[in-house]
Amino acid sequence: MPIQKTASGGYEVRVCVRGERAHRRLPPGTLASAAKRVESELRLALERKPRAEKSVVIPGDPAMVEILALYREEAEHLRSPETAKHHATRAEPWARKYRASQARECAAHIVKDMRQKVDAEGKKTGYTPATINRTLGALKRGLRLAWERGAAREDWSGHIQRLAENNQRDVYLDIPQVQAIALHASESVRAAIWIALLTGCRRGEVLALRKEDIGQDSILIRAGNTKTLRTRTVPIVPALRPWLAAVPLTINYEGLKTGFRRAREAAKMPHVHFHDLRHSCATILLGLEVPLDVVRDILGHTTIKTTERYAHALVHRQRGAMEKLSALTDLHQPRAPAAA
User: Fold this and answer.
1) How far is CA 338 from CA 162, 330, 332, in A?
2) What is the torsion angle, in degrees rounded to the nearest 10, for the CA atoms of residue 189, residue 190, residue 196 and residue 199?
3) How far is Cα 11 from Cα 27, in angstroms, rounded to an integer?
4) DSSP class of 270
5) For 49-53, 124-128, 296-300, which range has the lowest pLDDT when averaged over its residues?
6) Backbone phi and psi for residue 278, each to the nearest 5 degrees, phi listed first
């Protein structure tokens, strides 16, 4: 019999085609219909296998750790392979407990355990939705690869749903605040701060700058160093030129991260992120009535919609200022006489 019930409550499927045998043991709780489907898949895989090949790839239900292994193989060819592998490694404790067909349960378990919580002292523990999504993304891509390569009988990647993210920040600095942070920074960190503010460049773009990227009146931001993989040019303004003498910066990613943290804390602004300098560049330009499409091109946004959020932030800040003015005016205004 090709399909037999096991003592544990599962099924064992055995197939023989042209003298070649293959079998698959299915876990307890598997339905008879699923066992029949696996039998058909095994038979088809053996019939299609070239005679010269010694082994056959039979679609099945691989363990999640095997799924992560597939993802790590692909990660070698990504822009940031070590970062990608780190996200896969973070999922390991949960991956050991599940198989590919249990993708939904595995994802739910990850989200439950990794989600941010607040302890009795008011401290946050756990991970943000964005970080959890990167871990889920590693599993999702691995499941897709398993299906594409014939290692999984179904594409279970659709069973993993990412969390909603709210990454928009409303921290925008003015020039005196930037000066206060830069005052407490080392020379390399100070140069990075002003370059970021005066160009709208991301941290990675600032660190990747080289002498040959600096022209007579503009800077070339190379495609390989940008988030959108698009080359762009940024004009050099007089205030920026002295800081470009420090390019290439003698500091790495972690050094800049640590140096900026120390500077912002010393300036009594621990809530500020380095990326806020890019946001501040946008809002300062918009406050000077620079057109949206020009700001979009300077920052390298893919669409104008991304740039528009800074305009909304500017209006929000203006509204807050006007409400304060309104309250102050109302305080000193004579009251209208009561109706007779």
Assistant:
1) 58, 17, 18
2) -140
3) 7
4) T
5) 49-53
6) -65, -45
For the beta carbon of residue 274, count every other beta carbon within 10 angstroms: 21
The average pLDDT across 211-233 equals 87
Backbone angles phi, psi at 213, to 5 degrees: -85, -10
Segment among 39-53, 131-145, 179-193 with least mean pLDDT: 39-53
- Measured N-to-C along each axis, helices 276-287 and 304-332 cross at an angle, to the nearest 10 degrees, of 70
Number of Cβ within a 10 Å radius of residue 34: 16
Give me the CATH topology for the region 175-320. hpI Integrase; Chain A (1.10.443)
The whole-model pTM stands at: 0.56
For residue 203, count other CB atoms closer than 10 A to its CB. Answer: 18
Confidence of residue 329 (pLDDT cuts 50, 70, 90): low
User: What residue ranges do the domains of the chain occupy?
Assistant: 3-48, 64-159, 175-320
- Condensed to tens digits (0 to 9), the pLDDT of residues 70-84 reads 999 998 888 778 888
What is the pLDDT of the chain when averaged over all its residues?
Answer: 84
Q: How many CA atoms lie within 13 A of 273 on its CB side?
A: 11
What are the residues whose beta carbons fall under 8 Å from the beta carbon of 80, sequence distance 6 or more?
none
